[in-house]
Each structure stands twice: as C-alpha cells, then as structure tokens.
Predict the structure.
Amino acid sequence: MNSNEKAIEMFEQNKYEEAMELFQQAVHKSRGVQSLNNLAYFYEEENDDKALELIREVVKLNPSPYFPYNILGDIYMKQEKWTEANNDYKTMIERIKYGYVPGLEFETDFIGGCYLFGCKRHNHLEYEQ
C-alpha cells in the first residue's frame, strides 16, 4: 500500500492528522496528479489558497481528468466566484461527457447552482440567455 492509499484509509477513518502527514509524504515523494489532487482535496475545507495552488498544478500536469475541475468549482462556489465556478463545472462535465469517465453523466446541478446562487442574483446578463 502506497502513501496515498494509506492516507485515504486514514482519512476515511477520521484520522485526519495521520492522513495529512501521509498525503504530504506522498506529494514529497512524487508530485504526481494523484498525490497533488488528494492533498488539494484535503486542504479544500480549511485552506482555499493552498488547495488552489495544488489543484492548478494538477491541471498543468494533466488537464484531461474531470476531478480537478470539480475541486476548483467547489472552491470557487465557496468563495462566491460564480463565473469561475460555472466555467470549471462546465469543464468537468465536458470531460465526463467526452469519455474521460465512460458512462458517467451527472452533476449538471452544479451549473444550476452557480446560476441560481450567483449569476442570476448578480444580474449577469450573459446567463439570462
């Protein structure tokens, strides 16, 4: 079992300090997509800036998977950056639709959430079409 797998196991057991240490070890050993994404996910609740830094690195390494865009969208929703969240959720859905996750169609409600809670509320006319 590698550091990422051990960290996920600790995270699922609510052993967050151990999980954080293992996620950080995994990133130190290999700044790969999986280790960076997992650490960004871990940081997402407490440290948006650190999570954004890590997840942007994931996108630079490999822009194809859907999951970094989901994390980006979640962070931007939390920050009430509706347009950015909308764009990242759309990118996530595009990745899913076009074969990056075969047979998986979901999460269009994220875009609806961006519209209802952000764009419409702030009278962004480009979303009224």
In short: The helical segments are 3-12, 16-29, 33-43, 48-61, 67-78, 82-100, 108-119. The mean pLDDT is 81.
